[in-house]
Design goal:
Elements (H helix, E strand, L loop, with lengths): L7 H9 L5 E2 L10 H5 L4 H8 L12 H8 L10 E4 L1 H13 L5 E6 L4 H7 L3 E6 L10 H7 L4 E7 L11 H13 L3 E5 L16 H4 L4 E5 L12 E4 L3 H11 L8 H12 L1 H24 L5 E2 L8 E2 L2 E2 L5 H12 L1 E2 L1 E2 L15 E4 L6 H14 L1
Parallel strand pairs: 1-12, 3-4, 3-5, 5-6, 6-7
Antiparallel strand pairs: 2-8, 7-8, 9-11, 10-14, 13-14
Helix pairs in contact: 3-11, 4-11, 5-6, 5-10
Length: 377
């Protein structure tokens, strides 16, 4: 196994995620019960779940699930889909298949830590930072300048975790074109796709834009079903997909059979599920707007373009690390401080924290947050 650093986010969550009274930094949309999901199934899928044989499944993934995944793309067939145990396995194996010691990768920051640390464990990596002073803009000229003759991968994530940024569709298409021009694989983390506050800003999927590109997605985030642990990569380069399938033989081998059936039910019902989750975020954002408006001297707040996390700025003199530590210790309100998202590749803001806007009824947590802030004053 590649030697990797401590996974800061998961280590922090292992301490606080299930012990803090108010989880205000959740990165997934509100989940549903097994019964509620099964109620969305057609008769065939419900029967398939109830009569399921609990044996091994195929490494590529249940054929019906792969077909359901392919239906979410414009140019992807079921044969262009490989399923994994969540998005992290897919990311880890993709980087290990695409990158060797003499290679180079470009990674956009800030990001989910593994998007940076896994490539860094394999080869030289150049970071390109979203600009916090310009609405987290992506500078395509910086991407062009970072690409070298030995660059194999450009890794991006939109809607972005933790900022909620969605770039313009024209810029995303140009990014895919730049990668193709240089013979580079665009690795696109699209796990929040479908939760854009303005649906007109939904980006095309990388695997539809380029035969070389890889689109990463999962049931965990936009669909709000992390307990299923089902993710996938879509890529029209089937030789590359075959290499990824062989790499999976060394990790999970195959996915959970019940989870695959439940995932295909969710994907077939994605339209009402995503509509429910977008409506929940649309309801919550004004609640967060009003909360942060009460404390303009302490916070600089901007709602996300897409996804269900935002990355506000903390203006207090004590600094965001002490602020987040005291908040969870004294009020039981969990946020993620900027240190979780620090990068080895680029300067990253040290005064931010991640907050989630996709869970039901955030008012109780915000009330505890508000009470603590007022007491501190």
């Amino acid at each position: 196994m590649t030697r990797l650093p401590d996974f800061r986010l998961e280590t922090y969550f292992s301490r606080w995620e299930f012990t803090a009274r108010h989880h205000l930094t959740a990165s997934d949309a509100q989940s549903m019960s097994l019964g509620d999901l099964l109620a969305l199934a057609d008769d065939d899928d419900r029967a398939a779940f109830e009569n399921l044989s609990l044996g091994y499944t195929t490494t590529y993934g249940d054929p019906a699930l792969r077909e359901a995944v392919a239906q979410t793309y414009d140019k992807v067939d079921a044969a262009d889909v490989l399923c994994f145990a969540g998005a992290e396995e897919a990311l880890y194996l993709a980087m290990n298949v695409l990158l060797d010691a003499g290679d180079h990768a470009v990674v956009v920051t800030p990001n989910y830590q593994a998007a940076e640390t896994v490539p860094l464990a394999l080869c030289e990596v150049t970071g390109v930072a979203l600009d916090p002073g310009d609405d987290w803009a992506l500078d395509l000229d910086q991407i062009r300048a970072a690409i070298r003759p030995n660059t194999r991968v450009v890794s991006v994530n939109f809607p972005n975790n933790p900022t909620g940024k969605v770039v313009d569709a024209a810029d995303f298409a140009e990014l895919a074109r730049i990668c193709d021009e240089h013979g580079v694989h665009l690795f696109s983390d699209e796990v929040y796709r479908g939760l854009e506050r303005d649906p007109a800003r939904t980006l095309p999927q990388a695997a539809d834009l380029s035969e070389r590109a890889l689109s990463l997605n999962v049931t965990s985030k936009a669909l709000g079903l992390p307990g299923l642990r089902i993710g996938w990569l879509a890529c029209r380069d089937r030789a590359l997909l075959a290499r990824l399938e062989r790499a999976k033989h060394y990790t999970t081998i195959c996915n959970s059979a019940p989870s695959e059936v439940l995932a295909r039910i969710a994907l077939k019902a994605r339209t009402p599920i995503l509509a429910r989750n977008r409506a929940l975020i649309a309801r919550n954002v004004p609640v967060f707007d009003a909360f942060f408006a009460e404390f303009p001297d302490l916070f600089e707040w901007r709602a996300p373009d897409g996804g269900c996390v935002a990355y506000p700025r903390y203006l207090g003199p004590d600094g965001v690390e002490e602020f987040c530590t005291r908040l969870v210790d004294e009020a039981g309100v969990l946020l993620l401080p900027a240190s979780i998202y620090r990068s080895e590749l680029t300067p990253t803001p040290a005064d931010r924290f991640r907050i989630g806007v996709g869970r039901a009824a955030p008012e109780e947590g915000l009330a505890a947050f508000r009470t603590w802030l007022r007491r501190e004053r």
